[in-house]
Amino acid sequence: MKTSKKIISSVLAVIIVVSAMAISGFSASAATLKKPSGFKVTNANHSIYLQWNKVSGAKKYQIYKNSKLYKTVSSVGYKDYTVTGGQTYSYKVRGINGSKKGTFTSTIKSTRLNFTVITSLENAKSGIEVKWVARTSVTKYIVERTVYGINSYVKVGETTGLSLIDNTAVPGTTYTYRVTCYNSTTKSSSTVSVGVKVTRVLPVTGFSANAAVDRKTRQVTLKWTGSTGAESYNIYRQKITDEDFSKIATVASTHTAFIDTDIIKNPSAYRYIVTAVAGDSESVNSVERFVQTYSYEASYFDVPNEGVRNYHVPLFFNVGDEYAEGQYLADYFSYNGFFEVDTSEANGVVSVENNVIKALQPGTCKVVLTVPETVRSLITDEETFGDDLVALLTSRKVILEITVL
After folding, report:
1. Which CATH superfamily includes the segment(s) 40-111?
2. Which residues, in sequence order, are CB contacts of 221 under 8 Å at separation 6+?
């Protein structure tokens, strides 16, 4: 009987020891399956990319997506292609070894960025303008280009908007553009848009603008050398008092000249430019040309009262420091500047300071010059000074009819 008790006690002791060893061994094995370190979730090409570091003792890894087991893999990285642009997903990973399961990583959320789509590529005045479609969760867009046929993209610029002008595009060169979405919260970029090509239209050359010899017609003839590939040309004009250029005509590519007769009733100073057009694309501006089209009307005398001769001198000049800052009266209307000036009818259109007429604002006014007797007695030689000057300086009054354009 005692022997039986000893045997039973020994068996129990063995069972207890084996159980303890089994429990101890399981705990030690489980403890080796630590939480994967370096867990990252980023947007990748067509997918969301998960990465983590290898866990000692783990043979495989379980990926949980939106709190549900999604995939079991043996690698330490995985690309999830079953994602939709604009949607947010949560991920976590743990190592496993048979029935042994390790500790989960922290959950990371990631929003899948969409492809964007380039909607247009157009030649703008300052370069090629790229436009694209807005996408959800994008914090900025990166625009790149390459010369067509060469797969070597360079960054043109970045913006939070939906368009960007590449002002470094070289005329005559064909480019392919693409746009990449970027999300600063995930620190990752999406796949790029499909490349779209466009050719920068060459500007016209040899551009000239000349007023007619007969200034009474006041027409301006524009000429230029055609641009290769141009389908038409746009002509722009800016009156000196306007803030910007306005398109006044479009001519076919077979024409490399244009006559502007629209200014006959509106003499002034004008700037002109011409651009080449191909489809929806427009080249950079041509060289700018400046033309004055002021009317020339003969001076004349009238005798409103006996013994009084008024000499009318029409003047035309435009507002603007670079064109009509001032004209010396002494250069044109007197001898050595000896005259008296009356600006009571100048009406704020011009001012006269130190014998200089200065344009103040558009309008028409009169400036009256009275020539003293001392000056009239000095000038009698018509061969030296000319009929007009002698007539002017021997007149009792000169009326300048000034039009500021």
Report:
1. Immunoglobulins (2.60.40.10)
2. 209, 210, 212, 257, 258, 259, 260
Q: What value does the mean pLDDT of the chain take? A: 75
CA–CA distance, 159 with 68 (Å, rounded to integer): 38
Strand partners, 359: 350
CATH, domain range 205-292: 2.60.40.10
Domain 118-199 is classified in which CATH homologous superfamily? Immunoglobulins (2.60.40.10)
pLDDT per position as a tens digit, 135-166: 877 888 989 998 888 888 899 999 999 999 99
Write the secondary structure of the chain as one string of H (helix), E (strand) and C (coil): CHHHHHHHHHHHHHHHHHHHHHHHHHHHHHHCCCCCCCCEEEEECCEEEEECCCCCCCCEEEEEECCEEEEEECCCEEEECCCCCCCEEEEEEEEEECCEECCCCCCEEEECCCCCCEEEEEECCCCEEEEECCCCCCCEEEEEEEECCCCCCEEEEEECCCEEEECCCCCCCEEEEEEEEEECCCCEEEEECCCEEEECCCCCEEEEEEECCCCCCCCEEEEEECCCCCCEEEEEEEECCCCCCEEEEEEECCCCEEEECCCCCCCCEEEEEEEEEECCEECCCCCCEEEECCCCCCCEEECCCCCCCEEEEEEEECCCHHHHCCEEHHHHCCCCCCCEEECCCCCCCEEEECCEEEECCCEEEEEEEECCHHHHCCCCCHHHHCHHHHHHHHCCEEEEEEEEC
* Total-model pTM: 0.42
